[in-house]
Prior knowledge:
This protein has 309 residues and is α/β, with parallel strands linked by helices. The protein folds into two domains: 79 residues, Arc Repressor Mutant, subunit A (Orthogonal Bundle); 219 residues, D-Maltodextrin-Binding Protein, domain 2, CATH 3.40.190.290. The chain contains 13 helices and twelve strands. The strands form two sheets. Strands 3, 4, 5, 6, 7, 8, 9, 10, 11 and 12 form a ten-stranded mixed sheet that branches. It has a two-stranded antiparallel sheet with strand order 1-2. α1 packs across α2, α1 packs across α4 and α2 packs across α3.
Amino acid sequence: MTLNQLRYVVEVAKLGSINRAASNLFISQSVLSTTINKLEKEIGHKIFTRTNHGVSLTTFGHTFVSYVSSIQAQLTQLDHLIYRNSPSYDFTLSLANLGYYFLDKICSDFYIKYKAMGIRIETHEEHVNGIADLVASSTVEIGIVGLWSCFKSGYVRQTQAKGLQYYPIADLDIAITVGKNNPLFNFPEDSISVSDIQDYPVIKYTYIDSGPYADIYKRLQLVEPDNQFIVTSRSSIYEFLRNTDAYYLNSIYPQSLSALNSPDPYSEFRTLRLKNCQIQTQIAWIKRSNHILSPLENEFIQKFTQYFL
């Protein structure tokens, strides 16, 4: 397995086309196809399903690409570290998170506050395990995670094994979010039963579809529908909620977080608490055990935490 092979897989997955990926990579289509075929034989799994309309990721391919993308991000950061000639910043903030929109607003406020002095803000959207990897590799200094309580003990053990510290912030009730195209948008109650959503398609992250947290639907006694949207970014979740009758497994966030954004990206959606649910979502932040937070990082954690108090 080579770095070029991994880079090729990511490009094909992003474009859904070997021909277009080959053009972007400045190699021939035959060379790209052969390279990917060799990789699939080497690892013993099919990454792509090939059709007359292009290529799509297999179930294994979704998980494989999610991990490879994390490696690619770290290599990019390594290139930046070695080759860029950037000014020295007294104020730097580097974060990895699940794509929480309210974190972007907090970062924007920090820019306004410190722009006269020069500030560098770097954010990464990653899956839960990928966030831990980015923090452990020093690609970022702080990770913000949302983790279902049934997986917490295992995740904390993993973070400790990577030399990380785990700091819980808040426990939130689990909910589902729908858009105006879903009849449940007009549901007469604020809470909903498992049986009420079983006929609607679901939106899932790739790492939930086939990764270590794939059994969350079984744990919640949710029936996985025949129609599913598998995504890698929170922006895709918004688009599918906006344009389809699908639902997304979410959490009940404090009203103070919604107040951060105007307009709130979730204002055109509705979030309904899941009835009789014994599992919660824990919001937490992680850092390396040997990393001492800078004054700016401390300020960020305090600012973020206060919205859950």
